[in-house]
Amino acid sequence: MQNNEQGGQHQLNIEINDEVAEGTYANLAIISHTPTEFVVDYINIMPNTPKARVKSRIILAPQHAKRLMKALADNIKKYEQAHGVIKDTEPVALPMQFGGPAAQA
Predict the structure, then answer these.
(1) How many of the other CB atoms lie within 10 Å of CB of 26?
(2) Domain residue extents for the chain
(3) Interatomic CA distance for residues 101 and 59, integer angstroms
(4) How deeply is 41 buried, as exposed, middle or buried, from its count of CB atoms within 10 A (0-12, 13-18, 19+)?
(5) DSSP letters of 5-57?
(6) 3-class SS at 98?
(7) Which residue of 13, 26, 77, 105 sits 20 to 30 Å from the alpha carbon of 92, by its own alpha carbon?
(8) Which residues pair with 59 in a beta bridge?
């Protein structure tokens, strides 16, 4: 981090390569946790396909998971103010076999 002499604030320069910048589509997230970390698995389920693959796994410290939750809530609020309420669909009950601790989506 760099110190900004004007306000005493730190500035972080973040780089992203082309492959990461393209992003990865996911239409399901499985969230599990241990006493020391949260694990978020992002999955893309294709219609009429009995198998799905984890496309990305993000592991967060509990403090960072809580910051992410607050940031998502703030961004959803701003989105809905600009574009209208996001309609929540009914939960889809999918029979899943997935290793690891009990999860919620």
Answers:
(1) 16
(2) 17-83
(3) 14
(4) buried
(5) TTTTEEE------HHHHH----SEEEEEE-SS-EEEEEEEPPTT-S--EEEEE
(6) coil
(7) 77
(8) 39
